[in-house]
Write a structure and sequence with these properties.
By secondary structure, the chain is of the alpha+beta class. Helix content is 22%, strand content 35%. It contains seven helices and nine strands, in the order αβαββαβββαββαβαα. It is globular, with a radius of gyration of 17 Å.
């Protein structure tokens, strides 16, 4: 039972910002020239969010009430890598993750609760019988400092789609869902750090702060308007 232990991935402070395309391009140019800043390869992230009957986790997230927990299956777009079963939640201002790598063929047993790794992310406790809510996919560019104390992600081409009835069989066979980008989707910039990012970054992003933005909430309301 192997968990990822990268502290910035599993425990961090983060802020979210919504930019237009020109603002995001200007930020990328400045990040690319910043001393000690590393530009990682572009990747496409695909996420299937899970919830229980009646979608209680999603509704708490959308309504801004109670604990904000998300349970998801995620591909980080690296060929040959396993999928990840994750729980993300917030406590005392920090974003916390539990992340478990899962071979695609093992997913049906995990979702059914027959694999003990399911309990690590709250299946059987937060969600008794997990059901797929939606799929979200986007292009991610990553900038980080060489010391690993902060990371900026710039997410474009955000799209959301309903989940096909045979989603689990397709995932187990190694097939990821296809999701078209939404033409009106925002560019989402996330600042993730253990202490504080460079001051110029904080000042540049301050006017665009969007603390309540959530990709899951955006997708949920898009696919289920009026709920």
């Amino acid at each position: 039972m192997r968990l990822q232990v990268d502290p910035l991935a599993l425990r961090r402070y983060e802020s979210k910002h919504l930019l237009d395309r020109l603002e995001a391009a200007a930020l990328e140019t400045r990040l690319a020239g910043a001393p000690g800043c590393v530009n990682e390869p572009v990747r496409w992230i695909t996420t299937i969010y899970l919830d229980g009957p009646g979608t209680p986790l999603c509704r708490r997230l959308v309504q801004g009430s109670g604990a904000r927990s998300r349970i998801r299956i995620r591909s980080y777009g690296v060929p040959g890598d396993p999928l990840f079963l994750e729980r993300k939640h917030h406590r005392r201002g920090q974003a916390l993750k539990t992340r478990v790598p899962i071979a695609p063929a093992a997913l049906p047993a995990v979702i059914a609760g027959a694999d003990p790794r399911a309990r690590l992310v709250g299946i059987g406790r937060l969600v008794q019988a997990p059901l797929p809510v939606c799929t979200v996919r986007y292009e991610r560019r990553i900038y980080r400092d060489a010391a690993g104390t902060f990371r900026f992600t710039i997410d474009r081409a955000l799209g959301a789609a309903a989940v096909a009835p045979d989603w689990l069989e397709r995932l187990a066979a190694g097939e990821l869902p296809a999701v078209e980008p939404a033409p009106d989707a925002p560019v989402v910039v996330e600042c993730k750090h253990l202490g504080s990012p460079p001051r110029w970054i904080e000042e540049a992003l301050a006017p665009h702060l969007a603390p309540d933005f959530s990709k899951l909430a955006w997708a949920f309301l898009r696919l289920r308007p009026g709920e």
